[in-house]
Amino acid sequence: MREPSTAIIETNGGGVSSPPPQALLERLKDYGQEDVFSLWDELSNEERDFLVKDIESLDLSRIDRIIRCSLRSQGLPAAAIEPVPESNVSKVEERSQEERERWWKMGLKAISDGKVAVLLLSGGQGTRLGSSDPKGCFNIGLPSGKSLFQLQAERILCVQRLTAHATNESSASSVQIHWYIMTSPFTDEATRKFFESHKYFGLDAEQVTFFRQGTIPCVSKDGRIILETPYRVAKAPDGNGGSVFSSEVYQIIGGYGLKRNQVC
């Protein structure tokens, strides 16, 4: 009697093990990352579900592009860094009064037209300062006791008032500079609560947008994705440059013709 051709795999617990989702496995093979399923047979059903969802959340094509850029750069000589020629540098103090006034008016006009926003990269905690709070909440010892978040908010309010006055707007509230604040999984909730408890330091809540800093898988020297546990991909913050991939910030830069796939 012939044996069945269907392979049956037993788990550690003696039950029947199903293989990884075929479509996902094929995608991983396309990028040479199928090793993330190497411990599949040792996982419980719940752990397998977690691993599958974790992998499905990854932008594999972008990750592969970043890895390839990094691997191609290995062994290449570092580019020479030289000071910018002084002929290419101009100080405001060296410009004529007319030029400075013209630039000032151009800036205020751009703000009045809603073409200016503020992006604050605030995903870090104040651990080196002895605090687990977001750095923007930290008391840096000013006589006023103001936090970095408050100082930034007050500067935005000041520029809004200057713009309203210079452009003959009916009130300062008619001019708004949108404030995009990047947080992290560790600082997001605390940052939001800090702003709410301080009534956004005088700003309208609608002009402040919080978004979380992205993460990217950790990889080995040969470009293979590393697992933190047998069912969890090891990840790290994707850096300040990763902020351009957030949908909130992309709506700003999209108008300038920059596309996500143009950023390694």
TrEMBL record:
Lineage start: Eukaryota, Viridiplantae, Streptophyta, Embryophyta, Tracheophyta
Pathway info: Nucleotide-sugar biosynthesis; UDP-N-acetyl-alpha-D-glucosamine biosynthesis; UDP-N-acetyl-alpha-D-glucosamine from N-acetyl-alpha-D-glucosamine 1-phosphate: step 1/1
InterPro entries, alphabetized: Nucleotide-diphossugar_trans, UDP-sugar_pyrophosphorylase, UDPGP_fam
GO molecular function, one term: UDP-N-acetylglucosamine diphosphorylase activity
Pfam families: UDPGP (PF01704)
Gene3D superfamilies xrefs: Spore Coat Polysaccharide Biosynthesis Protein SpsA, Chain A
Keyword flag Nucleotidyltransferase: yes
Keywords: Nucleotidyltransferase, Transferase
Catalytic reaction list: N-acetyl-alpha-D-glucosamine 1-phosphate + UTP + H(+) = UDP-N-acetyl-alpha-D-glucosamine + diphosphate
Protein name (Swiss-Prot/TrEMBL): UDP-N-acetylglucosamine diphosphorylase
Annotated spans, Disordered: 1-21
Domain of life: Eukaryota
Sequence similarity: Belongs to the UDPGP type 1 family.
Native species: Medicago truncatula
EC identifiers of the protein: 2.7.7.23
